[in-house]
Design brief:
about 90 residues; elongated
Length: about 90
């Protein structure tokens, strides 16, 4: 007859084995995704990947930095369009 701690030990061993299998499966999926990405980066016919390859390879932080930079550029462009105050009242002598 199996005692409580032996049963718990068996269950934990089984759970550990399952977690190891899931880890190995995820590692394989990650390797496949990384190979796929590297193939697309090297392939000039894949649209958009080369333009953003640093963001993709840099991860979430690189993407957020690029978005913040592009938002900063848009606000500068918005202020210079449509009659901004820079140079207001300046006339060249004729």
């Amino acid at each position: 007859m199996e005692t409580d701690h032996e049963e718990l030990h068996r269950e934990l061993e089984s759970e550990g084995d399952e977690l190891e299998k899931r880890r190995d499966d995820l590692e394989g999926e990650t390797d496949t995704a990384r190979q796929d990405l590297n193939t697309k980066i090297a392939d000039n016919s894949t649209p958009g990947v080369q333009d953003e390859q640093e963001d993709v390879l840099g991860g979430k932080d690189a993407v957020e930095e690029a978005e913040a930079e592009s938002e900063g550029e848009e606000s500068v462009q918005d202020s210079s369009e449509g009659g901004a105050s820079e140079g207001a009242g300046y006339r060249e002598e004729e």
